[in-house]
Amino acid sequence: MTESQPTLQTARHKTQKVSIQKRSVRVGGFIVVNGYRVNRTLLKERFALGGYQIHETPHFLLFQRLEAPSTILVHWFASEEIDTDVSHYLVQELKPFGVIASNQHLSELLTGIVGGTLYPDDVRRAWNYFGVNTLQRLLTFLSTAGTPSLKDYGTLSASATLYQRVCELCVGEYFLDAACNGGFLSLLLAERLPFVAKAVGIDIDPNVFVVAQKLAEERHLNNVQYLQADLLAEDFDQIGRFDTVTALHVIEHFSEEDMYRVLANLLRVTSHRLILAVPYEHEHDQPQEPEVAYGHRQFFSRPKLEAVGEWCLQQLQGAGRIWYEDFIGGLLLIERR
């Protein structure tokens, strides 16, 4: 990997040398190193000799130079710490160094951490472990729901708080989670709400809910289903109608023109309530650029979300009502009358 292969010393009483190659995976243009229980002082000294600039954050060591391999990321997460919060740490801590210029970069780094730490020889098993960790922490947060200590929408605690509120707002027996990503909301709805006849999670990429699908099978949640679907498809309404439809942190991923096409499709399959949630990406009341690391194409504010709500009311020709909340960003509920 590098011209002088450094070895890593574990921080135990008995020193054990481990080749850095055995702890490394290459994903895209990055090399990701599992530095759990590694002597990081020694590691920094060795990479400095290789001409790397060194940046240290609470969860990572970042080594950069012009020659290949140009970007090496070291983390020290224990296996039980690896869940969706890792994405938040990557974005927040590496942003100042310009490492993550797209959602693809974020996906590559997360894949390197998950695959390289848990089960390097069994990627599917590694992602399943990641999913179990995430679901268990969500359930722990939900059992003691409260305002998250971290207000950023990207944290797992913030997601749990949002899910708790969404569960309170859901009505009926049939639920659709649009662009479900990991698919955890459908699992939570099926486990926590009574009288759930069906909870369906959909996403354009079927790979994102493979772990949740397996967890649903293991938990014998026969009322949970996952389907591949395109929110922009002209025949989207063939999926059926649902009492409550959720689209949480979804519409900011579309251009404004496509967003309204998505909203029109979601309204067509909503029998009672459509629940939207968006992040407010601003600092000190000043709008910021959409977060490209998360694949955002728009940034939202309260006035912009209100405009979306008014547009939805127009589509319902007045046969509806709307409700807004400032809740880890913005939450909009559209209800048919």
Can you describe what's shown?
The chain is of the alpha/beta class and 337 residues long. The protein folds into 2 domains: 7-124, no CATH class; 145-336, Rossmann fold (3-Layer(aba) Sandwich), CATH 3.40.50. Helices cover 34% and strands 23% of the residues. It has 9 helices and 16 strands. The chain has helices at 40-49, 85-94, 103-117, 123-143, 156-169, 184-192, 210-218, 256-268, 302-315; strands spanning 7-9, 17-19, 24-27, 30-34, 53-56, 60-64, 71-75, 174-177, 198-203, 224-228, 242-248, 270-278, 282-283, 286-287, 320-326, 330-336. The strands form 4 sheets. Strands 10-9-8-11-12-16-15 form a 7-stranded mixed beta sheet, sandwiched between helices. A 5-stranded mixed beta sheet has the order 3-4-7-6-5, with helices on both faces. Strand 13 (282-283) and strand 14 (286-287) form a beta hairpin. Helix 2 (85-94) packs across helix 3 (103-117).
